[in-house]
Specification:
Blueprint lengths: L7 E3 L1 H15 L3 H19 L5 E6 L3 H15 L3 E6 L7 H11 L4 E3 L11 E5 L11 H12 L4 E4 L21 E5 L2 E2 L13 E5 L15 E3 L19 E5 L6 H13 L4 E6 L4 H7 L4 E4 L3 H10 L2 E4 L7 H12 L4 E3 L2 H8 L8 E3 L3 H8 L3 H6 L1 H12 L2 E4 L5 E3 L5 E3 L12 H14 L4 H19 L13 H8 L9
Parallel strand pairs: 1-8, 2-3, 2-5, 3-4, 5-6, 6-7, 7-9, 10-19, 11-12, 11-14, 12-13, 14-15, 15-16, 16-17
Antiparallel strand pairs: 1-10, 17-18, 18-19
């Protein structure tokens, strides 16, 4: 039996089942597994902060606190100065034994209100709450979390930053902002999307020596994307082998959206790219990028011949919601061509829902997802996994729920999480690029699932390469050159 992949992501319920199976498979007690967690976390701490001499460990009443108490024991044995601060007067379960081990080793347990009496540490350890917390921390814990965050001292989080929902990546209240998170046994899906990006810092997995047998009855809920590209082209290829993308959009004042989507489709390898847009935009598009075949369309009759020549549609960039927009949108959908739907294409779909019979990829941001589902943005962000999967089933399409840790879901329940991307990509035009990239991959023969996963990965990795000169001020067009390199698997110095 093979070991689980580092790409595998699990829910909290999954982890509880795996934890029980791990104890049986290893033939050890919960206390011994806790000691393994503490030992691995201490090794990570030493690697990250080799000069640290004084630790402050913040322990909650449950097993996460037990990990903290035992880390304190091991750190003292290694010659470090350790102060332990406990949220509660007692600990439960195996954590009680860990607390007793700390006290028996001569350690003192300080109350939260005694923090001002303690010397400043080099590193703080967050062992307040583990994976079981799915609500806002209590006021005393919340105040302590804010104090930890405001101390200006590096933070190591054990298993999960306290206050972060390990299932969803949502933070219902105060949350630790860690510099390093060491998560145990297997990776949790909520550590990779939503608010987790601001909380986990560097994320390391410590498997604690748990054998593959412990995972036998638990399938991963999701997976992390892997870096990928298309295979090299055949030497006798011609442009007709790589598909014809038609980008439809660019309402009044929005020529840039179709320009970016079209150029991204070209850079992602489409053989031909046409643009159907307002007549007044054609001259500017021809001047800016002559490889795009720009056509002015005034309604369905002038769009129809372009649809007949296209293999794949990129519908929505800058489309608007005017009568012209709606007419083109209806005509494009009625063509039953494989498509990528974004921006106002999604907003029109929210008003007139339909299920797709041809391959389709929808790429909503949380606001568009909320309109499609008829709920608030907050509800979508509270459980991005459920929202992405519900959209995929509702519209019978592959769905990319954009944001930090973008999710790719299909109607069969499969879901992948993007581990790349950066805050510099929160700027205009990035979604238009993604639309063009995914459309180009569909045109080159990828199915919708493959096109969405590969497209999201290429887009985010290109964003990371483009951000090497700084995130602030990053432009969507800055991604085009690294996109080409990544799509051809050309090594890039900063690409990992």
């Amino acid at each position: 039996m093979s070991a689980p992949s580092p790409r595998d992501l699990y829910t909290v319920d999954d982890m509880r089942r795996i934890d029980r199976a791990a104890l049986d498979a290893l033939g050890i007690s919960g206390s011994e597994l806790m000691r393994r967690a503490a030992s691995d976390a201490l090794r990570s701490l030493h690697r990250r902060w080799p000069q640290a001499r004084r630790l402050r460990v913040h322990c909650g009443p449950g097993n996460n606190g037990g990990d903290g108490f035992l880390l304190g024991v091991l750190a003292r044995e290694a010659g470090l100065q350790v102060d332990v601060v406990a949220l509660a007067d007692t600990s439960s379960g195996d954590a009680a034994s860990a607390r007793a081990a700390w006290v028996d080793a001569g350690g003192a347990v300080h109350a939260v209100d005694a923090l001002h009496e303690l010397p400043e540490p080099d590193v703080q350890v967050d062992a307040l709450y583990g994976i079981g917390l799915n609500r806002a921390p209590e006021p005393t814990a919340a105040a302590l979390i804010e104090r930890i965050n405001g101390a200006g001292v590096p933070v190591l989080a054990l298993d999960v930053p306290s206050g972060l929902d390990a299932d969803s990546g949502h933070c219902p209240g105060a949350v630790i902002r860690a510099d390093l998170t060491v998560t145990f046994i297997a990776d949790k899906r909520g550590l990779h999307t939503g608010r987790a990006a601001d909380c986990t810092g560097v994320l390391e997995l410590a498997t604690l020596g748990v054998p593959a047998d412990a995972f036998a009855q638990v399938a991963p809920d999701a997976h992390l994307l892997v870096a990928d590209s298309l295979p090299p082209r055949r030497r006798h290829a011609n442009k007709g082998n790589y598909g014809h993308v038609l980008v439809i959009g660019g309402g009044k004042g929005m020529a840039g959206a179709v320009h970016l989507a079209g150029e991204a489709a070209l850079r992602a390898g489409a053989g031909l790219v046409s643009v159907a847009t307002r007549v007044e935009h054609v001259g500017a598009l021809n001047a800016a990028r002559p490889e795009l075949m720009a056509h002015g369309v005034d309604g369905p009759q002038t769009l129809q011949p372009l649809l007949e020549r296209a293999d794949t549609l990129a519908l929505g960039p800058g489309l608007g919601q005017s009568a012209w927009s709606h007419a083109l949108w209806l005509t494009a959908l009625d063509s039953r061509k494989p498509l990528v739907l974004d921006a106002d294409g999604l907003n029109l779909l929210a008003k007139e829902p339909r299920r797709f019979t041809a391959p389709a990829v929808l790429t909503p941001h949380p606001g568009e997802a909320a309109r499609l589902l008829g709920r608030s943005v907050g509800a979508v962000e509270r459980d991005r996994f459920a929202a992405a999967r519900e959209l995929a089933v509702r519209f019978d399409a592959v769905v990319v729920l954009k944001g930090a840790g973008s999710l790719v879901a299909d109607p069969n329940g499969r879901l992948d999480v993007c581990p790349w991307g950066n805050p510099g990509m929160a700027s205009g035009g990035m979604g238009d690029l993604l639309t063009g990239i995914v459309a180009a991959l569909l045109a080159q023969g990828c199915d919708a699932w493959r096109a969405a996963r590969l497209g999201v990965g290429l887009h985010a990795r290109a964003g990371d390469l483009a951000a090497c000169e700084g995130e602030r001020g990053l432009l969507a067009s800055d991604l085009l050159l690294p996109l080409r390199r990544l799509g051809n698997a050309v090594p890039c110095e900063t690409d990992e």
